[in-house]
Amino acid sequence: MNAPASISTSVATDLHWFAERAEALNNSAEHAEDVLPELGRRDLLRIGVPAALGGSGGTTSDSLEAIAAVAERSLTAAFVFWGQRTFIEYLLASPNEGLRERWLADLLAGRFAGATGLSNAMKYLSGIEALQLTARAQGDRLRVDGRLPWVTNLRHAGFAAAAAVQREDGGAAIVALADSQPGVRRSADLDLVALRGSNTAAIDVDAVDLGPEWLIHEDARTFCPAVRPAFLALQLGMPIGLARVALRTARERAGSAHAIVLPKVAEVSAEVEAQAAALHAGLADGRFVADAPTLFRIRIRLAELVQSALGLELDATGGRAYLLDQNREFARRWVEGAFVPVITPSLTQLQGELARHAAQGQG
């Protein structure tokens, strides 16, 4: 396993909880409420967070690799991990110290759920869609209405979600919405094809009254580009982990087809690790803040490599891949892999954004 130094050997070997429940997490909500506390119990949510704030230190790259390690066991659990860790990143980047003081300890421990409702905001920045929440100013307060149709990690035991709101003056702010607020309503779980244990639902927002204490950042156009590298990089832990486990399985099961399969496995493995290395390098030197197109290209290529890796696992496994009594993991990973191209920002959206940049001579 390609685990970062921030993950101790004891914790890394303890990830079997997610592997043992991967099928159930993919197919039902039976263990949905347990995923976050299990991530917290292993201190995975603390990775990449400064020790002074309750974390275990390290970098965003360390957190990305922790998400990849979980994704090797269960993409559903990794999806929850990404949502929680990204919300934590928003609080770390926010000038609102009160929000950190109120929630950070419980978020890091996995006692309270944080959801990244900024997929809409990221598309708004690229001109793909309008913001889905509107805000009317009432003094220093905002009255917010609208609907977020797809948000992950909305735990029934309690959650907060980050969201962008369109103000009447044409600007946009980033706010926190909590299930405890009057007017915030969580829908039933969305009827997903897979990842059904991820607590994914819609949020209806009806005349929610927000004071300054709920403001993550007053300017979405400043905040979102600054956090986008972490938003996307942490997300990419999912395809990296899924590709790694598929390629490792293909290597182990190649059998008589090894002469054909193994060279292809080696080629795809090398490119997966090259893309991961480029991702880590870009996070380390901060280039993705100004050079989003390079990050988009890494996202697109990793999605393609996941499909190649799963295809090689199928080639190596042969007909056994279709026998559930012999191999349930391939069928689950195949469906998990179908999610990678469509998670926001989808490949189609990123390709459109790259075309726009090219037309403007921006990369």
UniProtKB/TrEMBL annotation:
GO-annotated molecular function? acyl-CoA dehydrogenase activity; flavin adenine dinucleotide binding
Per the UniProt entry, the signal peptide is none
Q: Where are the coiled-coil regions?
A: none
Top-down, what is the taxonomic lineage of the species of origin?
Bacteria, Pseudomonadati, Pseudomonadota, Betaproteobacteria, Rhodocyclales
The Acyl-CoA dehydrogenase/oxidase N-terminal domain covers 20-110
The protein's matches in Pfam families, at most eight in alphabetical order, are given as: Acyl-CoA_dh_N (PF02771)
Q: What is this protein called?
A: Acyl-CoA dehydrogenase
